[in-house]
Write a structure and sequence with these properties.
Elements (H helix, E strand, L loop, with lengths): L4 H18 L5 H10 L4 H93 L15 H4 L2 H61 L32 H6 L4 H4 L3 H12 L3 H19 L10 H24 L6 H25 L3 H19 L6 H32 L5 E3 L2 H10 L5 H5 L4 E3 L4 H20 L6 H29 L5 H16 L1 H12 L13 H28 L17 H16 L5 H23 L9 H19 L16 H12 L2 H7 L12 H12 L9 H6 L2 H21 L1
Helix pairs in contact: 1-2, 1-3, 5-8, 5-10, 5-12, 8-9, 10-12, 11-13, 12-13, 13-16, 13-17, 16-17, 16-18, 17-19, 17-20, 18-20, 20-22, 21-23, 23-24, 26-28
């Protein structure tokens, strides 16, 4: 390197060192790089220069330290001296700071609360200011103009509302309608619970009114007023449907339950409000009414076996009452959801269906107790709904039909009772051994007979045991019939009329039919028929006591103009006449049985001089039979005796004139004459008192004159006097005489009854032929 360049290099190195000392270390890199980029070995010289500069700085530092060393040592010495005081001061400062912090905590908290409140106040003011602009968005139908409100369009929520509100509207309608459907389904299932509660309250009200009326001596009906419709209570929904087991039974009876206590109507209110706000109320009303009409038809549809038990009818009525209680509540709790016209339409439809159902199902019932229960259910059902303002007069009209059905079932039941009484009766007078037994009998049946009362015990009452039983059962029937009249809100006169009419049906139809059937039964003999006549006589006399019995029940005087009379007199008279006729018939049948035992030897030569055995048995039977008739009215016994004698006479006459009988001997005529004489003796012995003269003997006058004609063979007199009112043989008909004469003139090889005439006098044969010709002439003259 040239010497001229060395000073320049040194000068450059000085500049670099100054630059390094005066600039930031971040800029040292480029400076040092310039040294290596310069002349060769320049860096060595720079390093030398740098070492020289470092040594100069070290000397200056040493000088500086030597100059300040004593002051530093003095300062350290002073600091060491104040160290203890500094530590003591630090403790005091720390304690003061702690106490200051504790004293300022409350102030700090209040300051922070003030700051927070001021922030909230500022935020609220800002929010109110902004909400004032957004209030129209929350008013009804304001969402329609949200996009046109410049003040609110800047808010995103307004745009979201404008987009979503129509969807929300439909969703709200769907949700509320779903709730309504659940409500309708629930009320359909629980309407019987609502109805049961309403009916129970109606029964309690009726019991209370009845008690008050009896205490006050009233005799009129007070219309019930119930609280299930909740008209006097708030319409605020206050609960869901009650569980069947909810609450205590006694507590439920003490409380007055409203419809809201049993049913949560909030779905109806909510849905109605939503549809009203959304401007679609008419759609909701139409839907609700349509669904309730469908439910009404379901409620009115009875179960097929409803008529079998009273519980079937009770469930049916409970459901209907529950349905209309709910509708009545909705009518009064809402404005126009249902109208009175709508409920009246539903009720009229329901009433027609109910009447048709009850009319049909009651006709299947043959149990009077069940029909009576049905009547009670109809009455309380009608009273309950009448308390809600529904007209029920048609239901009470229906009760008259049910009453007829009830009477029919009672009549059928009592027909069985009467049959059983008649079947178990011994048809013998009632024996009474002591006065106590006598009192028991007369306590059950109004029997009064001075002659029998004078007799000493033991004694017999003329009627059989069926009489007091029948009388008691008629009274029981009246009581049973009276049960139906209870709670019908009818006057005493109407009840009296109903009782008398139903009792008349019992007497004139049921009892009369049982008596008629009894009389016609084959096992009922003459003794039984006689007792039946005696029984009906006493029952007939007891009819006036039945009249008094009904009068005592109804307090309606029998002298009232429109009072129905009992027809028991005619019933028992008809039965007695039928029994009398049956006596005559059975007597004749018994006579026929004896006559069938007759075994005449029609060709006998002469009679054995004694009456036939069958006839004597018949007469003995008649004597003993007529002795039983001593308790019968005189005319009955006389008529029976006369009828028996006439029938016997007719039967004997028919035996002689039987077409199968071809010939008769004079000996047979003589034997037959002996039998007729026994009949005449019986008639003259007055088997039944009361006949005048030979009245009873006249029953055999036809036979007597016919037999006398043949026994005496007095044809000349007969033919000469024929047609004369004083003829000796006035009762002998020419045809009868001709028929018997034909049988006597026929001869046979075995027995010729005219052989003696031919031996004695052949002219008699000619006489017979002449008589026959004359008789035939008379018969022909009669026929022409």
């Amino acid at each position: 390197m040239a010497e001229a360049d060395i000073p320049e290099c040194i000068t450059e190195h000085e500049r670099i060192l100054q630059e390094i000392e005066s600039t930031d270390t971040a800029c040292v890199g480029p400076t040092l790089r310039s040294i290596y980029d310069d002349q060769p070995n320049a860096h060595k010289r720079f390093m030398e220069k740098l070492d020289t500069r470092i040594r100069n700085h070290d000397r200056e530092i040493e000088k500086m330290c030597n100059f300040h060393h004593q002051g530093f040592v003095d300062a350290i010495t002073e600091l060491l001296k104040v160290r203890a005081d500094a530590e003591k001061l630090m403790g005091q400062v720390t304690d003061t700071n702690r106490r200051l912090q504790e004293a300022g905590k409350e102030v700090t908290a209040q300051t922070e609360e003030v700051i927070r409140c001021r922030i909230q106040q500022r935020n609220m003011a800002t929010t109110v200011e902004k909400l004032q602009l957004c209030i129209p968005a929350f008013n009804q139908n304001s969402y329609i103009n949200l996009n046109f409100a410049s003040e609110m369009s800047q808010y995103r929520f307004c745009q979201i509302m404008a987009e979503n509100l129509p969807k929300l509207r439909e969703e709200i309608k769907d949700v509320s309608m779903s709730d309504l459907k659940d409500f309708l389904e629930s009320i359909r299932k629980h309407s019987d619970k609502v109805g049961e509660t309403a009916i129970r309250q109606a029964q309690q009200h009726r019991t209370f009114i009845s008690t008050v009326a009896k205490q006050a001596g009233l005799d009129h009906y007070t219309k019930p007023v119930f609280s299930l419709n909740g008209r006097a209570h708030s319409h605020t929904p206050n609960g869901l449907l009650m569980d069947d087991g909810a609450g205590d039974e006694e507590d439920a009876d003490d409380e007055i339950l409203t419809a809201q206590d049993l049913v949560d109507f909030s779905p109806v209110y909510r849905c109605l409000h939503i549809y009203t706000v959304l401007g679609d109320r008419e759609t909701f009303e139409n839907y609700y009414r349509k669904q309730r009409k469908k439910q009404a038809r379901l409620v009115l549809q009875p179960q097929a076996n409803m008529h079998e038990t009273v519980e079937g009818y009770r469930r049916y009525f409970n459901q209907i009452v529950g349905f209309f209680v709910v509708e009545d509540h909705v009518l009064h709790a809402t404005q126009g959801l249902v109208t009175r016209a709508f409920t009246d339409e539903l009720w009229n439809m329901a009433l027609s269906k109910i009447i048709a159902v009850l009319r049909t199902h009651s006709s299947y019932c043959d149990d009077p107790d069940l029909v009576l229960e049905l009547k009670n259910l109809i009455v309380i059902f009608a009273d309950t709904l009448q308390g809600y303002g529904f007209p029920v007069s048609r239901l009470f009209d229906l009760l008259f039909e049910v009453r007829d059905q009830y009477n029919e079932t009672l009549l059928k039941k009592w027909a069985l009772v009467f049959r059983e009484i008649f079947e178990t009766d011994n048809y013998s007078p009632i024996p009474v051994e002591t006065e106590e037994e006598y009192k028991v009998v007369v306590s059950r049946f109004p029997f009064h007979d001075a002659e029998i009362e004078k007799q000493s015990f033991p004694k017999k009452l003329p009627m059989s045991q069926s009489v007091p039983q029948i009388y008691s059962q008629v009274k029981e029937f009246i009581y049973a019939s009276l049960k139906f009249s209870e709670s019908l809100h009818r006057s005493s006169t109407e009840i009296d009329d109903m009782l008398r009419k139903s009792t008349n049906l019992l007497l004139t139809r049921t009892l009369s039919s049982c008596l008629q059937n009894l009389i016609k039964k084959p096992h009922i003999g003459l003794t039984e028929l006689v007792q039946i006549i005696i029984n009906t006589t006493h029952l007939e006399q007891a009819c006036r006591y039945l009249e008094e019995f009904i009068t005592n029940i109804t307090n309606v005087s029998p002298e009232t103009v429109h009072t129905t009379r009992l027809y028991g007199l005619s019933t028992f008279k008809d039965a007695r006449h039928a029994a009398e006729g049956e006596i005559y018939t059975k007597l004749n049948q018994k006579i026929d049985e004896f006559i069938q035992l007759a075994d005449y030897e029609w060709c006998m030569a002469e009679s054995d001089g004694r009456a036939s055995g069958y006839l004597m048995d018949l007469i003995n039977f008649l004597r003993s039979t007529f002795q039983v008739f001593t308790h019968l009215p005189g005319k009955v016994a006389q008529t029976a005796c006369m009828s028996a004698c006439k029938h016997l006479s007719t039967s004997l006459m028919q035996m002689l004139l039987d077409s199968e009988l071809k010939q008769i001997s004079m000996g047979a005529i003589q034997q037959f004459n002996l039998d007729v004489m026994q009949c005449e003796l019986f008639a003259s012995s007055e088997p039944v008192p009361g006949f005048q003269g030979d009245t009873l003997q006249l029953a055999f006058i036809d036979l007597r004159q016919l037999l006398d004609l043949f026994m005496v063979w007095d044809w000349s007199t007969y033919l000469a006097d024929y047609g004369q009112p004083n003829s000796k043989y006035l009762r002998v008909n020419p045809a009868t005489a001709l028929a018997l004469l034909e049988k006597m003139k026929d001869t046979s090889k075995k027995n010729n009854i005219f052989s003696q005439f031919r031996k004695n006098d052949r002219d008699k044969q000619k006489l017979v032929e002449t008589v026959v010709k004359q008789l035939r002439s008379l018969v022909n003259g009669m026929s022409s």
